[in-house]
Amino acid sequence: MPRVRVRQHVNPLSKRYQTPLNPPSWETLYSDLTRPFFLDIGSARGRFLLEMAKIKPEYNFLGVEIREPLVEEANAKRDELGLTNVYYLFCHVNNSLGILLGSLPPNSLNYVTIQFPDPWFKKRHAKRRIVQPQLVNTLADYLNPHHDHADFQGSVFLQSDVASISEEIASQFDAHPAFVREQPPWLPENPLPVATEREVTSLKENKPIYRTLFHKKA
């Protein structure tokens, strides 16, 4: 299918994005709801999760994205590939995450990724950034506890090519009593088997990437 052209940035505080998500009927979207869920916040075109869904069929993958044309494109590609363990939702995560996670089967959220979020550099735009205290609180409420020997269990993986944004996001998780940071605090490599399109581009341009991993305390 042709690549959809969309605006790189949308203002999440505009009126269009203030209606909270109405959760879907999960059983119509996934073939097996007993699988643990892997959530990607800000899934863009969805290529990362499509590859993950192929590699890890024992997981359900869910992408949330505020740019609706990208969600439509990603779900069309999902259908084209015949994948039944991945789906994408259009929503503003900061007013819908609690509703979304509360509608999933209990104790099913195992792993979360937030990769290369829009930095919104200007100070007056800080409220537009994805990672806000309420988002961290919600993840603390719904994420399963971390277990050292379990695959993708109880962790939040964060990465960006903007140092100040990486530090700000990390500080919010550091400040929450439910999370503990993996050491060393900045990871030299991506612990996941698939890179996002943005990560591949950043590496080709020799940009530094700031990666960190937080675990939900047992």
Mean pLDDT: 89
* CATH fold node name: Rossmann fold
Terminus-to-terminus distance: 44 Å
Find the structural class using helix and strand composition: alpha/beta
User: Treating each run of at least 4 consecutive H or I residues as one helix, how many helices?
Assistant: 6
Radius of gyration: 16 Å
Quickly list its features:
218 residues; alpha/beta; 6 helices; Rossmann fold; 18% strand; globular; seven-stranded mixed beta sheet
Give an overview in words.
It is globular, with a radius of gyration of 16 Å. The chain starts with 36 loop residues before the first strand and ends with a strand. α3 runs parallel beside α4. The chain has one domain: Vaccinia Virus protein VP39 (Rossmann fold). The longest helix has 14 residues, at 68-81. α4 (133-142) links the parallel β4 (109-115) and β5. It has helices spanning 47-55, 68-81, 93-103, 133-142, 163-174, 197-204; strands at residues 37-41, 60-65, 86-90, 109-115, 155-160, 179-181, 210-216. It is of the alpha/beta class and 218 residues long.
Q: In summary, what is this structure?
A:
With about 220 residues, the protein is of the alpha/beta class. It contains six helices and seven strands; from the N terminus they run E-H-E-H-E-H-E-H-E-H-E-H-E.
